[in-house]
Specification:
With about 375 residues, this protein is of the alpha/beta class. The chain is built from eleven helices and 15 strands. The longest helix has 24 residues. The protein binds guanosine-5'-monophosphate (5GP) and magnesium ion. Magnesium ion (MG) binds next to loops. It is an enzyme of class 2 (transferase).
Length: about 375
């Protein structure tokens, strides 16, 4: 992974793959052109590296020149193309091949065609190393295409992000999500998980995804996933993990600009933990840590009995029910503790003390991630 200015990029296309595509294009173009001497025209700035490597691979005599256009601001293409250096030589009767680094919307290409409209060239061919078919909005034929890529911002091999990255010999793609702190939060009943989640959310600007809330939201709003989940619940069957994961994915997608997520109530099994890893990976991210509040059983029992007296919650009134819930918690989370420990991602935090003290302990653990 690399960082340019404020953004993170991941390796996407290796120098070797680029070289292969370039060789293929040079051979193809040489075969089509035959013995004529073509003029290759690079579009500056981006295509300097493409042109340099291309002409070295071109097996026959050729001429090279450049025009300079600019259309990009940051990571977005703009309609407004500036012609900074136009054609500086007469191309009447010549076979011209425009060499582009990348064709995205095609706005730059439209400007290229405007430039050539009044030139009496013999033929005008367009070659591009990279092409984003989903972004392309024009009808101009692309005669030679190196590599088709998805509609995501890339850097390297001549391509920049606000000036940086042009010198990198391979191509990097922008990360779907930027750097994130993703926490799986655990705590036995009575450990104060809800209070602490609220605090963590504020302090680290995280999105709290409570699986229970997500379920209730989807069912209440009768989303497709909500209805699907309900159909299992109505039969008294367990909702398949994939349905839950799909709901969580929707939550993650709503918040790709977040600094990260607090997963609460999920995962509960090894299979779910793996599925969550896969989901985060598909978003170019990962789970940073499982944070578990640790509170001695006797203290939990006392806290819950105390809470039962004031709240009147039936499940907080009976000591044996309470002990059973605590036991169940440990039975279920032990597997996850092992799962995340194996990746050095388990952090137990002492959950006894004042709310502020626990908060400080949690922050200390998170700040070290
Ligand atoms: P278009 O005019 O086809 O939308 O975009 C062409 C120009 O935009 C390219 O020559 C390049 O300068 C810039 N561009 C398009 N897509 C990308 C990209 O993914 N990364 C970078 N760095 N520049 C791009
Ligand atoms: Mg360009």
């Amino acid at each position: 992974m690399i960082k340019l200015h404020d953004k993170y990029f991941k390796p996407f296309i290796s120098a070797k793959e680029i070289d292969k595509a370039m060789t293929r294009m040079a051979t193809e173009i040489a075969n089509d052109i035959g013995d004529e001497i073509p003029v290759f025209i690079g579009i500056l700035n981006g295509s300097f590296m493409v042109v340099s490597d291309f002409v070295k691979k071109y097996p026959k005599p050729c001429e090279v020149t450049f025009i300079k256009l600019a259309s990009y601001e940051g990571v977005k293409s703009t309609e407004d193309i500036q012609r900074l250096i136009g054609l500086t030589q007469d191309l009447t009767g010549r076979t011209v091949v425009v060499l582009e680094d990348i064709i995205d919307t095609g706005n730059t290409l439209a400007e290229v065609h405007r430039i050539f409209k009044n030139e009496q060239v013999k033929s005008l061919k367009i070659a591009t190393l990279f092409y984003k078919p989903e972004a392309y909005k024009k009808d101009y034929k692309l005669h030679y295409i190196g590599i088709e890529i998805p509609n995501k911002f890339i850097v390297g091999y001549g391509l920049d992000y606000d000036g940086l990255g042009r010198n990198i010999p391979e191509v990097y793609q922008i990360k779907e999500t930027q750097y994130m702190t993703n926490l799986v939060l655990f705590g036995p009943p009575g450990a104060g998980k809800g209070t602490q989640a609220e605090f963590l959310k504020e302090k680290y600007n995280l999105v709290h995804i409570s699986t229970g809330d997500v379920f209730r939201f989807n069912i209440k709003n009768e989303t497709a996933l909500g209805m699907l989940a309900k159909s299992y619940m109505d039969k008294g069957a367990l909702v398949p993990d994939q349905v839950t994961i799909d709901m969580l994915e929707a939550e993650v997608e709503k918040n790709t600009d977040a600094n990260g997520f607090i997963f609460d109530g999920f995962p509960r099994t090894n299979a779910q933990a793996k599925a969550l890893d896969v989901l985060m990976q598909s978003k170019d991210s990962s789970i940073s840590a499982m944070i578990a509040l640790e509170v001695d059983d006797e203290i939990l029992v006392q806290r819950l009995i105390g809470r039962g007296k004031t709240s009147g919650r039936a499940d907080d009134a009976d000591e044996s029910i309470i002990r059973n819930r605590i036991k169940e918690y440990y039975d279920k989370t032990a597997i996850l503790k092992d799962y995340y420990s194996a990746q050095n991602k388990y952090f137990g935090v002492d959950g006894v003390g004042s709310v502020e003290d626990i908060t400080i302990r949690l922050s200390n653990a998170i700040d070290k991630l």
